[in-house]
Amino acid sequence: MKRVLYVILGLVLTLGLIFPLTAQATICGECEGGVTALTLRYLGAGSPNIEVKAGDKLVFSGQPDANGEFSFVGVGADQKLGKEIKVYVNGTETKIHTSCSQPIGPGLVVGDFEVVEGTSLKGGKLCPVSAPPSDDECGECVGKVTTLTLQNIGLAGLVVVTQKDGKTVYNAVVPAGGQFTFTGQDKKGTLGTEIKILVDGIENVKIHTSCSQPIGIDMKFGDFVIIDGASLDGGKFCPPPAAPSIDVEKEVQVDPASNPPWEDADEATGPTAHYCVRFRYIITNTGDVELNFIELSDNRIPAVSVPVNTTLAPGAQVTVYYPEIGSEPASIPAESGQYENIATATGYYAGHPYLDTDYCHYFGDLY
Predict the structure, then answer these.
(1) Domain boundary residue among 90, 125, 160?
(2) Can you give the CATH number for the domain in which 359 is found?
């Protein structure tokens, strides 16, 4: 699609209105039909002799100008540069795709060379290319998916992945739990609007890759989970946001000499104690990231705590008894009447606290 401004005697005419010309008007389009001419800027040191070949034809030989720039055109009746050009300087070869199968235009940097301007056979003057996101950046899916890494959570089998245009982008046996990566093969290097995955010749799932529907790391499609990926304009997929979470369960055991069960007595009145009681606190990291500096407090038992600098990985637990003698749980005299207390566990992620509370009850009927 071309972006057009009509220039008339120093004025810009667009949508029936006339404005003074304040910047150079341009007509540019996407690369179509193959590149026919390029101006490159040499970004290296000095002003070396440079040679450019399109196939076996020499299309440029010489030094760049004072701005480091040099220009050349294709050969033959249509003056196309072919599938790619090879630029030689100081014995080093740099290849630049010129078939329009990959993005090309002003701003594109390949090795020590930057595209300043150019034309294609059917698209005319090349429009500037968008700066690709850096390797350290990530973003949402924008402009269609370009690459995916999937994990097979089903059975082993022959996995074939095809784009909607029929091109096969992956065809190999993948074991159960195995991971595999593939990239798009359309004109812009994307997977198009949809891919289809077959396992042993049977369709398993279709995945939208146009970015019009949610797609990202950890998302499940059929027997496959996305491990990594990238999109044309959004760059590398961001990992899912962290979900820190912690849980504490406070349990009571009454008259432990008779070995009764531990009870999670969230509601009154709870079990009946005649002589003595002891408590158990179970703290679990229920989130998906590590929690640091785990803390435990109780509104009725100030002395309860966890070891200093306790860290819990996702799914990990720490258990604390009160009272405790050495490494063994002990007991304390029961109090008469209704007893209630509240345990609070706290863990920290990225400097922020995450906490949970739990009630515990028993009723003291002392002998």
Answers:
(1) 125
(2) 2.60.40.10
Is the same domain home to 87 and 53? yes
Distance CA 84, CA 277 (A): 81
User: What residue type is 311 in one-letter code?
Assistant: T
Whether residues 230 and 250 share a domain: the answer is: no
Note if the pTM is more than 0.70.
no
- Strands 272-273 and 352-364: what pairing? parallel
Q: Tens digit of pLDDT for each residue in 129-160?
A: 865 555 557 888 999 999 999 999 999 999 99
The b-or-e profile of 152-174 (16+ CB within 10 A means b, else e) is beeeebebbbbbeeeeebbeeeb
**Nearest-angstrom CA–CA distance, 2 and 24:** 16
- Same domain (yes/no): 147, 226: yes
Residue 21 counted as domain residue? no
Over residues 47-82, the pLDDT tens digits come to 899 999 998 899 999 999 988 999 999 987 788 999
Domain holding 69, by residue range, is 31-125
Q: Which 3-state string (H, E, C) describes the chain? A: CCECCEEECCEEEECCEEEECCCCCCCEECCCCCEEEEEEEECCCCCCCEEEEECCEEEEEECCCCCCEEEEECCCCCCCCCCEEEEEECCEEEEEECCCCCCCCCCCEECCEEEEEEEECCCEEECCCCCCCCCCCEECCCCCEEEEEEEECCCCEEEEEEECCCCEEEEEEECCCCEEEEECCCCCCCCCCEEEEEECCEEEEEEECCCCCCCCCCCEECCEEEEEEEECCCEEECCCCCCCCEEEEEEEEECHHHCCCCECCCCCCCCEECCEEEEEEEEEECCCCCEEEEEEEECCCCCCCCCCCCCECCCCEEEEEECEECCEECCEECCCEEEEEEEEEEEEECCEEEEEEEEEEEEECCC
Distance CA 207, CA 197 (A): 8
Q: Mean pLDDT throughout 345-353? A: 91
pLDDT value at position 12? 39
